[in-house]
Amino acid sequence: MALGFAGEVVAKPNVVIGYYPSWKKQYMSSVDFTKYTHINLSFGIPTASGTFTYEGDWFEPQVVTEMHSKGVKVLLSVGGWTGSNLFSTILKNPSARTTLINSMANHVRDFSLDGIDIDWEYPGRLGNNCNVVDAANDTPNFLKFLQDLRAQFDSTFGTRQKLINLAVRVQPFDINGSPATDVSAFAKVVDYANLMQYDINGGWNPQTGPNAPFNYENGKGMQVSFVSAIDAWTGAGWPANQLTAGIGFYGRSTIASVDMTKDPNNQYQNQTSTVPLGDSEDGAWWDSCAGSGGYSGVWQWKNLRSQGVLTSPTTAAAPWVRKFDPISQTPWLFNPTTKQFISYDDPQSIKVKVDYAASKGLAGAMIWSVNQDSASGELMAAVQAWPGNGGGSTTTTSAPPVTSTTKPATSSAPGSTTAPGTTTAPATTSAPATTSTSGGGPVAGGPCSSQGAYQCADNTGKNANYFICNNNVWLQQACGSGTACFQSGANIVCNWPSA
User: Fold this and answer.
1) Which of 138, 205, 232, 376 is exposed most, by the fewest CB atoms within 10 A?
2) In this predicted model, what pLDDT tens digit does every residue of 265-276 receive, in sequence order?
3) 3-state SS string for 258-297
């Protein structure tokens, strides 16, 4: 241990889990993997039969050998934003689920892995428009699958010799449109749940806002945060020492429709539907499920620094202007010339999160992704400054408890910068939903014909319920607690109810 700022005791976090995207292998030579305890190779993509494919299997043995030589455990992450479409159907099919369990065990054995990470986005909730969703049964089926996977791992490799980790959203798994209130049974067979506490606001919103707020601001942006995610999972019975705090080493950019410097203390200002080109690694994408495409607008930390947007971790290069929001505890950048807005995390904001996570007894941190830090490791240094003995403190106050959760309708897993958010689908939240609506709208389970279509339950501006057309059936969801659904052409917006 050593003394850190203000004399606090600092120790390395027990766990630092980093995602290693196979499509970014060429950028891995500069990563100091000794700073990590676990590496998740991503992603294995399930097939309908229960097998899965991993495009990085050709270099997997080399990476496993290298990581093990550094004392780092290696897992394969199965799923992801574009790889979660078949989990629901696989887990309902006895043959396919058995094949998936065996495929995972065989892959762990054949490649000398330390376990499997499952990134299902999301049980009981629509992520990518191609996903199959069973609102009532996905979460119970997932629990039974994980119990059987644990039994298979223990019988094959020895009791608790192999890890089963999960990437999870900012609230527990959904059952019939609401977050589960008790997830303690999951924690008994899972080692760590990695919170995806980012991609909360972005180009899918009508206003600019923080990508990964520490606290949310009442009535502004999506009403979830780093703090509320920890509260939600521990409140549902997940042990804090089996949680890792999700930290994105990247930011997202949008185009404001106003000059944000005229209201410089407000990071929530109107934005256009155009997401700009991000950093030098960004490029055009196309989502065949959503039927839309564009740029991700992602700026990795290393490129904010190397491309001259930031001349130091806290200094912007002209014409960029840097601000630090006191409630979300995150920095943001604005370019008055292009009206480009960027929300991201830096060493200052990461310290706030690390201190808080340590004070709440979390096991450590999860990083998306390992290739995005600067060459000197500026962000990882902030993660590594983990207050010891529960001595971390934060000068900010916790966000109020919430009952809603959010994830951009076309964000990647977990925090991926390769399948960006779209401006044509809303970021949605969950709250208790009924099974029928008033005003002649869709009915849950009723037929629909336009895959991925969104429709409010009615046009009163007071009803939280809305529907998504998923596999020719209306899937009912709901806006966050205290908000209502508003139709905007073919899209919807969750906002405060009409007076």
Assistant:
1) 376
2) 999 999 999 999
3) CCHHHCCCCCCCEECCCCCCCCCCCCEEEECCCCEEEECC
